[in-house]
Design a protein that fits this description.
Layout (H helix, E strand, L loop, with lengths): L1 E7 L5 E6 L5 H10 L2 H8 L8 H8 L6 E10 L2 E12 L6 E8 L8 H15 L4 E7 L3 H10 L2 E6 L2 E7 L4 H4 L9
Parallel strand pairs: 5-6
Antiparallel strand pairs: 1-2, 2-3, 3-4, 4-5, 6-8, 7-8
Helix pairs in contact: 4-5
GO molecular function, one term: acyltransferase activity, transferring groups other than amino-acyl groups
InterPro entries: Acyl_CoA_acyltransferase, GNAT_dom
Protein name: N-acetyltransferase domain-containing protein
């Protein structure tokens, strides 16, 4: 992943958030391999065991306009490790809407990384004219539901154990004034 900026999490650990590029396929695959079965299921809503080459290509070949992906990387012992990804894919029918997905490695959950990734992604979405996110989430995934509600007003539709959450992306005051907003740390 390239063009990053370092941010500090609640526990003092540092990560670099940066745009996902095709060269990140191996980093993404390694991060996926470290996910627990539960985390994989929560992200893909199915028992996915591995990412296929086609899936890796889709997840890393993004145009940063209609499909944006921001990855979080930690450097531990001189080795780069992918620890989270947030992405949106714009709707072809409703260009102001985008599907949202978030994954944080199990050992990095509960440190504020998910919120950091989502805030950065929401800012990018607003820059690209996206004003609404939709996300399919397991009803039992309270942590992600809380994060989504922190982005703006939400509506929820239930289908069994799955929810479709719609989030209105409200501009932050600095964006309304037309100024660039530094990412929150």
């Amino acid at each position: 992943m390239t063009d990053g900026r370092e941010d500090m999490l609640r526990d003092g650990r540092r990560v670099t958030l940066r745009a996902v590029q095709p060269a990140d396929a191996a980093l993404l695959a390694a991060g996926f391999a470290r996910l627990s079965e539960e985390s994989r299921f929560r992200r893909f809503l199915s028992p996915l065991r591995r990412l296929t080459p086609r899936q890796l290509e889709f997840l890393t070949r993004v145009d940063h306009r209609d499909h944006e992906a921001i990855g979080a990387v930690a450097v531990e012992g001189g080795v780069e490790t992918g620890v989270g990804v947030a992405r949106f894919v714009r709707s072809a029918v409703r260009p102001h809407e985008a599907d949202l997905a978030l994954t944080v490695s199990d050992e990095w959950q509960g440190r504020g990384l998910g919120g950091l990734l989502l805030r950065r992604l929401a800012r990018r979405a607003r820059e690209e004219g996206v004003t609404r996110f939709t996300a399919d989430v397991l009803a039992a995934n309270g942590a992600v539901l809380h994060l989504l509600r922190s982005l703006g007003p939400t509506t929820t539709a239930r289908d069994g154990t799955q929810l479709t959450v719609t989030v209105e992306l409200v501009p932050v005051p600095e964006e309304r004034a037309g100024r660039t907003v530094p990412a929150a740390s």
